[in-house]
Amino acid sequence: MLPTLRRARIIELLRREGAAGLKDMSGSLGVSISTLRRDVDYLCALGHIERTHGGAVLIEARRAGVELTRDIATEVESAAKSAIGRAAADLIRPGMTVILDSGTTTAAAARAARDRGIVFTAITNDIAIAALLADSAIITLHVTGGMVRAGTSTLLGGDTLRAFARLRVDIAFVGSHAVSETGMSDTSVAVVEIKEAILSAADQPVLLADSSKMFSRSFCSFGDFSRLERLVTDTRLPDTKRAVLERAGLRVDMVQIGGRA
User: Where are the domains of the chain?
Assistant: First the structure.
């Protein structure tokens, strides 16, 4: 198993369990304790987890303000992101104008839309998503200006904001670091400003977020559910929590991991 994939699986396990011993993680992931120890030390150095005697623990308070590196984030909940991405692509009709926010779940939607062979116009502030869509001869691609956020593929800043402020599109796919019972939040003011501009630019703003992000909060809010047309998430979200979101006025579409909605 590649290091990036191992580290993603450690994050997933600790999000489920909260804490785990190296021996338990070794059995679950099928890798040696010495290899796990190096991976845990790596994730600790980045501030994602904390070492305990013989194991590791996820610090939820840190999750609010610390983002995973893109390579790890792409692998975390990758199956759920793929399923959500396919469901999102199903919402795109030929000829639509579509904003794709920067992120790994929105990248899954971009990949699915490209692979379906849909004719549409895409606008993105993510150079990795732009590279995905540039492979298509039938997608008209616009990339916003802006400054690349260090260590990511995200474009930010005044040029990015002005680009989105000029637009009115059919549908926008937006990601979120966290989703509480009342709204969405992310890790920086600069990121949130872009997401707010994207929501304002779309006739149908759609939030794409896997169930591991539900009922958590991050550093800065970027809107309540009244700003969304729907949420697309996976079926691991408990019915009780889905009901809370729906009572708050949010339409929730659930997709089966590894299958269709």
Answer: 3-63, 77-255
